[in-house]
Amino acid sequence: MKLKKISALAELISAIAIVVTLAYLALETHQNTIAVQATIRQSMLAEDRELVFKQMDYPFVAPWLYGSRQLTDVEKTQLASWLIVFIRGRENQWLQYRAGVIDEITWESYRYPLRDILLREPAKTFWRTHSSRGEFAHGFGEDVDQFLADAPAPADLSFDQLIGFSE
Predict the structure, then answer these.
(1) Model pLDDT for residues 99-151, shown as the tens digit of each residue
(2) Does any domain span residue 121?
(3) Is the per-residue pLDDT at 4 higher than 70?
(4) What is the phi/psi pair of residue 72, to 5°?
(5) Which of 12, 109, 138, 141 is deepest in the core (most CB within 10 A)?
(6) Cβ-proximal residues to 66 (8 Å cutoff; 6+ apart), any chain
(7) Exposed/middle/buried for 44, CB within 10 Å: 0-12, 13-18, 19+?
(8) How many whole angstroms separate alpha carbon 156 and alpha carbon 65?
(9) What whole-number distance in Å separates Cα of residue 24 and Cα of residue 39?
(10) Does residue 26 belong to any structural domain of this protein?
(11) Is residue 124 part of a domain?
(12) How many domains, the chain?
């Protein structure tokens, strides 16, 4: 009888140890998830900062998007590279969103510049050409196309209004 009590007590202690271990592992997993999400958001910010700094190197990007500037062949090459980097960055963020690494609110805040840029006629043609070739992740092109189709027409802003120097 004494052996049965010891065995039952050992089973109870074992069950408690398993529950405590599972709780600890759940907490560790949650903390790891938070750390991964913070790292991804930091990476997203770094990508966007790099794009903004590249716009400083290529000041013709915004005037071209708003139809007030023709580009040289060199500038077209630079712009095509900038657009690919921009779209690839958003594609990566879309993949992170689809994988559940970033939340919907974060993804939405990064998705809207796609609309603002890709609805402008010069970039719209660029997008259609590259996405129709299947150059982006399966599903990303379709999601962007749907997003663009559902979006209102871009506001007819002057360059000064675009960059926030005029209302």
Answers:
(1) 998 899 999 998 988 888 898 878 888 999 999 898 999 899 999 999 988 88
(2) yes
(3) yes
(4) -75, 170
(5) 141
(6) 120, 157, 158, 159, 162
(7) buried
(8) 12
(9) 23
(10) no
(11) yes
(12) 1
